[in-house]
Amino acid sequence: MRFRLTPRETSFYDMFAASADNIVTGSKLLMELLGADMSARAEIAERMRAAEHAGDDATHAIFHQLNSSFITPFDREDIYSLASSLDDIMDFMEEAVDLVVLYNVEELPRGVEQQIEVLARAAELTAEAMPNLRTMTNLTEYWIEVNRLENQADQIHRKLLAHLFNGKYDAIEVLKLKQIVDVLEEAADAFEHVANTVETIAVKES
């Protein structure tokens, strides 16, 4: 790591950790949605909406700190990219839950639970990794594993699409379910964007 002669604003580390912890909360709500009947989904969606708003607040706090800090712990564009990608994850997870409620989906297709399990694991890994930005240690395994999970998510997504288009569902139901599984796939992509940004930061700081 490069030796610095100037002090750095360290509150970013805590804010990134808080944002990642909030994503874990969102992933748990996704898991809860899987086992909930239709009557309980609206309440879960409301809690997910609150978590998404908390994520927005965390992102805005990072941007405010970025705009008011003369010296930052790493490149400003990387701070912006990391905060934005973390925010995207919450946005996609909240959108998926909201669509399930708005579309009155009676039963999610087989395979969605695998998508959500991948997201939950990626959320845990991301939350564990954020505090390590302080020292830039123990991060390599994190971004390798998240990239592996994203590849796994791609395979699950393709199988889900094949299942949706096998003739079992009517056309309207296919459109509804496809939008939901596509948004969950976008969440997996956003986790990979976070991991790639962390890798970029680590390389620059080495």
UniProtKB/TrEMBL annotation:
InterPro entries: PhoU-like_sf, Put_Phosphate_transp_reg, UPF0111_domain. It holds the Pfam family PhoU_div. Belongs to the UPF0111 family. This is DUF47 domain-containing protein.
